[in-house]
Amino acid sequence: MAKVVKFGGSSLASAEQFVKVGNIIKADKARKYVVPSAPGKRYSDDIKVTDMLYACYALAEEGKDFSGKLAEIKARYQEIIDGLKLDLSLEGEFKIIEKSFKEKAGKNYAASRGEFLNGIIMAAYIGYTFIDAAEVIFFDEKGLLDEEKTDRMLGERLAQCDCAVVPGFYGSTPDGKVKTFSRGGSDITGSIVAKAAKVDVYENWTDVSGILIADPRIIKNPEPIEVVTYKELRELAYMGFNVLHEDAIFPVRKQGIPINIKNTNKPEDNGTWIVGSTCQKSKYTVTGIAGKKGFCCVNIEKDMMNSEIGFGRKVLQAFEENGISFEHVPSGIDTLTVFVHQDEFMHKEQKVVAGLHRLAKPDSIEIESDLALIAVVGRGMKNESGTAGRIFSALAHARVNVRMIDQGSSEQNIIIGVANEDFETAIKAIYDIFVLTRL
Ligand code: ASP
């Protein structure tokens, strides 16, 4: 049995957190490969080391004095080293960083030092081999992950050592420069390491006990999801769930390696399992409820639309020509509605309307704004009758006017459109009916 354990920034923000992480690693021999993030926030208005590095490098790039900001970053690491009573000095590393900043080594290089230095501390603390991610994770000329080379080189390196620390968030380009993934990208590194080492489980440790059924800013203490499939998670992530970086799913998914989201501050909690497929039923009919505000819909009407071949294409072309992606396209006999992001659409609105008239020649066009979309997601829905009925009677009781309904053919989700102002009420009503009252 072997596991990759990735720890997020809040799990490594201080010496105290490092001690918890050390105990977690020691508690299970299978935890052989460790992927650390950079130190995150110690308290709510603290600054993440990654953000400090970006700010520090911005000064260097402008040719300004950055020594004060670099000293603050150094102090963050020194506090951890001292707290852990480690016999370790990062003096040499900081000299190299200072020189590289002066030579304008790039924003990516700057940001990557957060995980690089934390990786050195982690390896020293737990006695694992340190592997610089720039030597084993590779991007191609287009800036995309070079999966084949990474898998081979990383696999070979990991096979040479029993236990290793690979810092998250970065790799290197064909010309030897350091390049980072997008923000939150240490999750991707964890997944890449899990795939290359062919481990049994990828544990992703954070500061919540798993993925919650609904947004805790709307629902007080929502329960965590026990098991979620990759597909369900995609639907929920798209609608705003962001416990895990979206791209972190793909490497492990290819190998059928499950991800277990765990809480560093409550290691005894089961957390959430993210799996390819499962015969385990969700505790409730729905697995999760997510949503987003800020949509607009364009209602297009034309008599005999249903028999006009190519009508849909012409409508969507008007959006495509203006670089606007559509979210949903529910349709009636003589009507077709296109849901788009309001902020994307707003300043191109008249161009799209003109395009629609030119291309599709509709009878009328109507635009509605300030709408929200809610996704009720659950693999169990297709085998249970009455799910839609429960959702809509709950919404009716809460006096929420439903503006759009879309059930995908996968039957994994039902999307509901409501006014922005009804968003929170609607989510509460759906959570109540499925989770609290289980009616
Ligand atoms: N430290 C990076 C960030 O703040 C990457 C990560 O934590 O995953 O985005």
Topology:
Layout: E1 3-7, H1 15-26, E2 31-36, H2 49-61, H3 67-83, H4 91-102, H5 107-126, E3 129-130, H6 147-160, E4 164-165, E5 170-172, E6 178-180, H7 186-196, E7 201-206, E8 227-229, H8 230-238, H9 249-255, E9 259-263, E10 272-275, E11 288-301, H10 311-320, E12 326-328, E13 335-341, H11 342-345, H12 349-360, E14 364-377, H13 387-397, E15 404-407, E16 413-419, H14 423-436
Parallel strand pairs: 1-2, 1-7, 2-4, 3-4, 7-9, 8-10
Antiparallel strand pairs: 5-6, 9-10, 11-13, 11-14, 12-13, 14-16, 15-16
The protein binds aspartic acid.
Structure report:
The chain is α/β, with parallel strands linked by helices. The chain contains 14 helices and 16 strands. The strands form 3 sheets. The chain has an 8-stranded mixed sheet with strand order 3-4-2-1-7-9-10-8, with helices on both faces. Strands 12-13-11-14-16-15 form a 6-stranded antiparallel sheet. A two-stranded antiparallel sheet has the order 5-6. Helix 6 links the parallel strand 3 (129-130) and strand 4 (164-165). Helix 2 runs antiparallel to helix 3 (67-83) and helix 10 (311-320) runs antiparallel to helix 12 (349-360). It starts with a strand and ends with a helix. The mean pLDDT is 94. Aspartic acid binds next to helix 7. Aspartic acid is lined by residues 9, 37-38, 48, 50, 114, 168-169, 183-187.
Give the key terms.
binds aspartic acid; alpha/beta; eight-stranded mixed beta sheet; six-stranded antiparallel beta sheet; 439 residues
Précis, in short:
By secondary structure, the chain is an alpha/beta fold.
